[in-house]
Amino acid sequence: MSFWEYLGNRHQQLFADALQHASAVLQCMVVATLLGVLIGVVTYRSEWAGNFATLTTSGILTIPSLAMIGLLIPIVGLGVAPTVIALTLYGLLPIVRNSIVGLRGVDPSLVDAAKGIGMSRLTRLVKVELPLAWPPILTGIRVATQMLMGIAAIAAYASGPGLGNVIFRGLASLGSANALNQVLAGTVGIIILALLFDAAYVLIGRLTISRGIRV
C-alpha cells in the first residue's frame, strides 16, 4: 500500500489523532504561558531571582522527555495527566526567559512617566510594561510551541493522546506492510500542525503588536 493510499484509508483516524495532538499542545501552552509570564513578572526586578527562575526551568528542559513521563507515571498514572504535566514544564523555559528579558527591556523613562501620572504598580505593569514586553514574550511562546509539538509525540509512551500513537505503532511493527506509512503519517502530521500553529502566532502578532513596536 502506497503512502497516499494509506492516508486515504486512515484519514479519519489520523485527523482525530491530529486534533487530539493539537488540543493537548494548545492547552498545555495556555497553562505554560500563564505560569511563565507570572514567574517572569515576579522575578524580573531581581537579578538573583531572574537567574534562579531561568536556571530552574533550564534544568527541567534537560530531563529527557521519556524519563520525565516515566517518572510521572507512578505518581499520576497513565493517560492525559503525565502528558499535560510534562508538556507544561517543558514549555516554561522560553516563556520565562523571554518574559524576564522583555520586561527588563522596557524603557525606564516610560515607566517613570506612567508613575508620574499616578498609575499604580499593577496598572503600570498591565498597561505599560507587559504590552511593551509582549513581542519577546510571543516569540518565547512560539518557540515553546514548536518544541512541544515534537515532545508531545512521546506522550504515546504513557498512553497519551496525539499523533505519537501512530508513530509508536509504526515503530512497534517495523517490517510490516504499513509500518513506514504510519511513522511517516505521524511525522508529517506533526510538522503540518507546527506550521499551522506558527502561522497563527504570526497573525496574533500582527493583531496585537502595534506597528511602532514592531519597527
What do you see in this structure?
The protein has 215 residues and is mainly alpha-helical. Helix content is 81%, strand content 0%. It is built from ten helices and no strands. The protein has helices at residues 3-43, 47-61, 65-76, 80-90, 92-104, 108-116, 121-151, 164-172, 179-208, 211-214. Helix 6 packs across helix 7 (121-151) and helix 8 (164-172) packs antiparallel against helix 9. The longest helix is centred in the first third of the chain and has 41 residues, at 3-43. The radius of gyration is 20 Å and the shape is elongated. The termini are far apart. It is a multi-pass membrane protein. InterPro entries: ABC_transp_perm/SBD, MetI-like, MetI-like_sf. This is ABC transporter permease. It is found in: Cell membrane; Membrane. Keywords: Membrane, Transmembrane, Transmembrane helix, Transport.
